Amino acid sequence: MTTPRTGTVLVAGSANLDFVVRASHVPAPGETVLGHAFETMPGGKGANQAVASARAGGAVTRMLLALGDDTFAVPIEASLRDAGVELDIMRAHGQPTGVAFVCLSDTAENAITVAPGANSLLEPGHLPPLAGVTHVLLQLETPLASVEAWARAARAAGVAVVLNAAPARTLPASLLADVDILIVNENELATLTGVEDIATGMDRLDVACLVVTLGARGCCARMGKQRFLQAAFAVQPVDTTGAGDTFCGTLVAALSRGLAFGQALRRAGAASALACTRLGAQAGVPAHDEVERLLAADSPDATTEDLAIYCSFA
C-alpha cells in the first residue's frame, strides 16, 4: 500500500506485552473473579498507536521504544514490524519488557494495571533524528521528563507535537505550551482541568487544538475557536482495549497525509469503532481498506445534535 505523502509519523512511547484474562465482569476491590479465557497480546499505548498509524492510517510510521532482552519482547517487535512500523529500539539489557495485566469483561469493559519495565528507561537523548517527520505522537507511559524533552525538541525542529495525555495526570504548563494537538478522554480532561463539564474544561486548556474522545458517543474537538463534533459509528463491541489508541494513531496518520482536520476525525472514529469489534489492542487494529469501506458504507450512530448537547456545545 502506498501513501499520498512522504511525511513520517514518529511515535515515541511505551510497548508492553498484555496478559489478558476474559471474565464475566471486572472484579471490584477485594473480589476474586473466575476467568474463562487467557492469552498474551502485544500492547502498550505507544506501540498500539504506532500500529494504528501504519495499518489503519496508512502513514509512514517509525517508533522509538524500549524493550528488555527477555522473551516478552519478541511478540511486540514482531507485531510492530508486521504492521510496517520502522523501529528505533533502546534495548534495556537486564531489565524486563513492560507488561500490562488486563481483565476484559464479557460486556467489553476492561481494567488494566501496567508494570512499565523497560519503558521507564527511555531518556530524552534517545529521540532519533526528526528529518522527514511531520508529527511526533507522545503518551504518558514513559518518563514525563523524557516526554517534555521530546516535545521541546520536536517543536524546535518545526515538527507538530501530538500528546495523548494518558494515563490521566496533571501536566506542567510548559509541556502544554509545546503541544500542537492534545488528545484526552473525559476522565483525563477532568484531571487536567478540575471540572466535569466538557465545554468548560475544553475552554480552560490553553492549547491550539484539543480533541476529547467520548467512547461510544464519538468525539468532540476545538481548533482555535472552531468546534468539531464527530458521532460514533454503530458497532457491536467485543473488546474496547486499544480503541482510544487506534483513534490517536489513525488521526495523526491522516493529518500527516494532509487530510483536513474534520476528515481526520471521522477517519479516526471509524478506525476506533472497528477496533472494538475484535480482540486485542494491536490485533484489533483494522486495515486501511477496512476503514475505507466503513467510511463509504456507514454513517455515525448518533446525530451531532445529541453530541452537542452532551458536550454542552448547544
TrEMBL record:
Gene Ontology MF annotations: ATP binding; metal ion binding; ribokinase activity
EC number in record: 2.7.1.15
Localization annotation: Cytoplasm
Gene Ontology annotations for the cellular component aspect, listed alphabetically: cytosol
Entry coiled-coil feature ranges: none
Known cofactor(s): Mg(2+)
Regulation: Activated by a monovalent cation that binds near, but not in, the active site. The most likely occupant of the site in vivo is potassium. Ion binding induces a conformational change that may alter substrate affinity.
Binding site for K(+): 239, 241, 275, 278, 280
Cofactor notes: Requires a divalent cation, most likely magnesium in vivo, as an electrophilic catalyst to aid phosphoryl group transfer. It is the chelate of the metal and the nucleotide that is the actual substrate.
Domain Carbohydrate kinase PfkB per the UniProt entry, residue ranges: 9-286
Top-level lineage group: Bacteria
TM ranges: none
Binding-site residues for substrate, renumbered to this chain: 16-18, 44-48, 141, 245
Pathway(s) served: Carbohydrate metabolism; D-ribose degradation; D-ribose 5-phosphate from beta-D-ribopyranose: step 2/2
Subunit structure: Homodimer.
Protein name: Ribokinase
